[in-house]
Specification:
Blueprint lengths: L3 E4 L5 E5 L10 E7 L9 E5 L2 E6 L2 E5 L2 H4 L5 E11 L2 E13 L6
Parallel strand pairs: 1-8, 4-5
Antiparallel strand pairs: 2-6, 3-4, 3-7, 5-6, 7-8
Length: 106
């Protein structure tokens, strides 16, 4: 489990090293954020070409836009990072995303 803390309306960017799978095998990637683990709706979701990029055969890059969190209430949210390869689905990262109110906000 990996927890992230960020300021509302900022960019969150991080890399993920893949182990046991090559990026070329990946069919889909989802970085999904929910207010509660049991919610059916996403607060926001990033996918390949929309915030998730394959850097090379062993690395992914995930980037949120400031617009993804600009209107969120400061609170704890929950995320996971899922990859699909053929008929298989792997959750390779999960944790808590804490959104804090910034000092400099418009």
């Amino acid at each position: 489990m990996e927890n992230f803390v960020m300021t509302r309306g900022d960019t969150l960017a991080f890399g993920v090293e893949l182990e046991g799978v090559a990026a070329q095998e990946i069919d889909a990637v989802y970085f999904s954020v929910k207010a509660d683990r049991n919610d059916t709706n996403y607060v926001f979701q990033k996918t390949l070409g929309n915030g998730v990029e394959i850097v090379d055969e062993n690395h992914l890059s995930i980037r949120t836009s400031p617009l993804d969190t600009a209107t969120l209430e400061p609170n704890n949210y929950y995320y996971d990072l899922q990859i699909d390869i053929g008929n298989d689905t792997y959750t390779i990262l999960a944790g808590k995303l804490t959104i804090k109110k910034g000092i400099t906000e418009e």
